[in-house]
Design a protein that fits this description.
alpha/beta; transferase; Precorrin-2 dehydrogenase; Rossmann fold; binds S-adenosyl-L-homocysteine; multifunctional enzyme; 4pyrrole_Mease_sub2; uroporphyrin-III C-methyltransferase activity
């Protein structure tokens, strides 16, 4: 990639969390910038050495650090040998990092920068991006959480503004919640490890760069003992992925203990949450909450949310919708994770009896177990009111610019599930060239699904079902209508490879059919990934701007 403004290469920088404990940082200069660099070095546990000419005015805070012994001052001109003699013994005296605060015009800046590069010492020169091998980030920290922002040397003040806005968006106490969840994870891992589970089963993964693997939502089947034994850790991963941050940060040690107790054995469907039997008269509403964006709620569902005493939400109902729930209202989120759906559902039904309000993602009757819930509550004498919701099956494709029907291309839509009861594979639909097929709950077994759509099973001797051509266009649509919506456009031939490369961002579905190419024709590459969705929020602000300009 080339940067049009200055012709320099503008690849993304490699952003790191560098352990600088005990490092020696050389700071050239004694001005206010040197003072800021010194403070930063001390903050990260490094030992700063300041080199400044005898005549230089020492910034007052530098003088303070020097007087306390936190920083060391060498009052003379810089010498080349400083770079290789002032550092730690264990690295043969080479310093770990150099900050030059004399500005890009100073002859010494270029000279030292070149020397540092030759010695592979990371170097930063104030106001001279071309002399820097690294730049510092505008950072926000809360306990173990650190967020860094760079504008790639554009030097504008936007970075600190962005940092403030991001920090303001995050809930309070996120740092301690991360600490708490992290130590629970560690403890579970150690217990599972002590119980003799292999590293493969434990899926050790402490690297922040990796998102969810494409196997994240794989089912835990009854025969898969190793996976079943790690159910507590898998459940923890699930709440970290699905729970609203607000709820995660409010979690207490007691909450965690209680929840984990319920998941410590495979037979864990008992007295959890202390909800037993019917506790009061009331009304149950099964309310569809749409695919994710709060603007896609019906007014009926919105009113139900506002007036409920207790809300039981499906795991997939995303935070912006849950954020509409008044703070005083009790909220329970279904403890569903792959392989645990039946128990979690039973638990929700029991709680529903005691509590009497149920939030369903999408539309309650579309793979939402809405009718089962209806029957259950009716049998208990509480026939629910059911409120429809916009289903992800049709809206996800819309938000991915895929018209489910289109004149001359697609004249029918089929909605199917990729997962049958107890994880079994359902009957695959036969190829119909003018059909758009939407597969829900299918991505965790995408390759098996694609295989069965495009090839005959060895034991299928009749071979009567029409197979889907491998070049049929398709798209994976994940977190449709949410800010982190992602669309992967590909063909049946390449989609599995694409998904494996991109990883999983649940919930997601697969759309298959010629309609995928109506608004986005085939590209040159095997797949294309589109990130983000802001259509509804932009519409919001445009309408507001318009109203404002009319008032004026
Ligand atoms: N009742 C829901 C569907 C429940 S089944 C509805 O009408 O939308 C759960 C499946 O819905 C997920 O596995 C996924 O395939 C799909 N899904 C739900 N929300 C989604 C979203 N925002 N984006 C993409 N797929 C979604």
């Amino acid at each position: 990639m080339r940067d049009a403004s200055n012709g320099a290469a503008s690849s993304a920088p490699l952003m790191l969390a560098w352990d600088a404990q005990s490092q020696i940082h050389l700071i050239i200069g004694a001005n206010s910038l040197a003072a800021a660099r010194c403070a930063k070095s001390l903050e990260v546990g490094a030992r700063p050495i300041i080199i400044a000419t005898e005549t230089a005015d020492l910034h007052f805070s530098l003088a303070e650090h020097i007087s306390t012994g936190a920083a060391h001052l060498i009052s003379r001109d810089f010498e080349d040998s400083d770079l290789t003699s002032l550092g730690r013994e264990e690295v043969d005296g080479v310093v770990d990092m150099v900050f030059i605060t004399l500005g890009g015009q100073h002859a010494l800046s270029r000279h030292i920068s070149q020397k540092c590069r030759r010695l592979r010492i990371p170097v930063n020169v104030s106001d001279a991006p071309d002399l820097c091998s690294f730049t510092l980030l505008s950072t926000y920290s809360d306990g173990p959480l650190h967020i860094g922002i760079t504008t790639s040397g554009r030097g504008c003040k936007l970075a600190s503004r962005l940092r403030r806005e991001i920090a303001a968006f995050l809930p309070k106490n996120l740092g301690s919640a991360i600490d708490r969840l992290g130590s629970v994870r560690r403890k579970l891992w150690e217990e599972d490890h002590a119980a003799g589970l292999s590293d493969a089963a434990l899926e050790v993964d402490d690297d922040d760069t990796t998102g969810q693997k494409h196997t994240f939502n794989n089912l835990v089947t009854e025969g898969d003992m190793a996976a079943a034994k790690t159910r507590r850790i898998r459940w923890l991963s699930q709440i970290c992925e699905y729970w609203p941050l607000r709820k995660l940060t409010a979690i207490t040690d007691a909450d965690i203990n209680e929840i984990l107790k319920a998941y410590s054995s495979s037979n864990h469907m008992n007295e959890t949450n202390g909800v037993n039997g019917v506790s009061k008269k009331g009304k149950i509403i099964l309310a569809g909450s749409g695919p994710g964006h709060p603007d896609l709620l019906t007014r009926a569902t919105y009113n139900a949310i506002q007036n409920a005493d207790i809300i039981l939400a499906d795991k997939l109902v995303p935070s912006p919708v849950l954020d509409l729930i008044p703070r005083r209202t009790e909220l329970h989120i279904a403890r569903k994770f792959p392989g645990n759906a039946d128990q979690a559902q039973e638990e929700l039904l029991q709680m529903g009896l005691a509590a009497l309000q149920k939030g369903q993602q999408g539309d309650p009757y579309l793979y939402g177990r809405g009718a089962e819930e209806f029957e259950f509550f009716r049998a208990q004498g509480y026939p629910p009111v059911v409120l429809p919701g916009i289903t992800s099956a049709l809206s996800a494709s819309l938000f991915a610019d895929i018209p489910a029907t289109h004149r001359g291309v697609s004249d029918q839509v089929l909605i199917c599930t990729g997962t049958g009861r107890k994880g079994a594979a359902p009957e695959p639909p036969a190829y119909v060239p003018t059909q758009t097929v939407v597969f829900l709950m299918a991505l965790h077994r995408l390759s098996a699904l694609v295989e069965v759509l495009t090839e005959y099973a060895p034991d299928d001797l009749e071979r009567t079902r029409a197979l889907w051509p491998k070049d049929t266009p398709c798209a994976i649509v994940e977190r449709a209508s949410c800010p982190d919506q992602r669309v992967i456009r590909s063909t049946l031939k390449n989609v599995c490879q694409a998904f494996e490369a991109a990883g999983s961002r649940p919930p997601g579905l697969l759309v298959v059919g010629a309609s995928c190419h109506v608004l986005h024709g085939p590209g040159d590459s095997k797949w294309a990934i589109e990130e983000g969705f802001s259509g509804l929020d932009e519409l919001h602000s445009e309408i507001q701007d318009l109203a404002l300009s009319q008032e004026i």
